[in-house]
Design goal:
Its EC number is 1.3.1.12. Keywords: Amino-acid biosynthesis, Aromatic amino acid biosynthesis, NAD, Oxidoreductase, Tyrosine biosynthesis. It is a single chain. The protein is an alpha/beta fold and 305 residues long. It contains twelve helices and nine strands. The chain folds into two domains: 5-175, Rossmann fold; 179-288, 6-phosphogluconate dehydrogenase C-terminal like domain (6-phosphogluconate dehydrogenase C-terminal fold, Orthogonal Bundle). The strands form two sheets. Strands 3-2-1-4-5-6 form a six-stranded parallel sheet, with helices on both faces. It has a three-stranded mixed sheet with strand order 7-8-9, with helices on one face. The longest helix is centred in the middle third of the chain and has 28 residues, at 177-204. The chain starts with a strand and ends in a 17-residue tail after the last helix. The site of NADP nicotinamide-adenine-dinucleotide phosphate has 27 residues, from helix 1 and strand 7.
Amino acid sequence: MSVIYQRVALIGLGLIASSMAHAMRRGGLVGEIVGTARSAETRDIAREVGFCDRIVDTAAEAAEGADLVVLAVPVGAMGAVAQEIGPVLKAGATVTDVGSVKRAVIDAVAPHLPAGVHFIPGHPLAGTEHSGPRSGFAELYDNRWCILVPNGAEEVATQRLCSLWQSMGANVEMMDADHHDLVLAVTSHAPHLIAYTMVGVADDLGRVTDTEVINYSAAGFRDFTRIAASDPTMWRDVFLTNKDATLEILGRFTEELFALQRAIRTGDGDHLFDYFTRTRAIRRGIIEAGQDTDAPDFGRSVKHD
Ligand code: NAP
């Protein structure tokens, strides 16, 4: 494959950025990868793992002279990073991000970018419950979706970023930021909150012991615990920045939950059966689309965020 960007700057060196670096190297897609992270500890680990060509101390140093800058920090930190790199970006560079929320990232980042820089927000729908520079792997994006938000950027710049993601193994979909935030509230954000809640409920319930919860978790609870092990900083920021869409979906969830609760209380088996038949069909659709998150991809539990 040919080189798509000469120099790429990765700002933040956790799961998502390190997996991008591994995937870019696998495909020989970029000339040079320059990385940076907030802490010296993460920078040292990244040096040791060796997925970047150079590790530098600051975001501004990494972004200077880069053709593509990837913001791979928690959503709540994107604005401050953009403010730092804005003055050093070279004309014609592309800035993208990988944040799980899109409207809030656009609002926080766009004001800091100079004219002549292409800003194309993105979100790879791939992840694991692991984080940090050791957790990345080249196959993370294979056959997963990556959503790009063109946001008025030039077509040529958008296509170039699109071809990078495709060459890293992903399928790319273009979407408007608000629609992205609503879709993800349904498919990821509300389910995470429900998982966090369920694990909290089990933890609070005095009549069921911790040992029982651990030993018998295969009956459904185990998947909740995997989701609820996701990074607290990342998920705090997701809920604070995708507030409206998440609250709308949780409102609908509560209505449905009450309807199911009523069906259980009144012994309305038909309601329960019809409901579960409909949801089973959705599960089949996910498997047929090859997006079954329970598949043991490369021995790791892969989920969509
Ligand atoms: P991660 O493994 O926890 O890595 C986060 C990186 O951001 C670290 O290098 C960390 O630096 C840095 N960072 C944290 N707080 C910061 C701050 N306040 N200022 C500057 N840098 C900071 O996270 P990740 O899973 O790669 O997630 C990165 C982004 O991808 C997030 O926006 C998340 O929403 C999005 N995303 C995540 C997933 C997923 O499943 N994990 C999936 C899709 C998208 P230090 O290590 O030095 O603290």
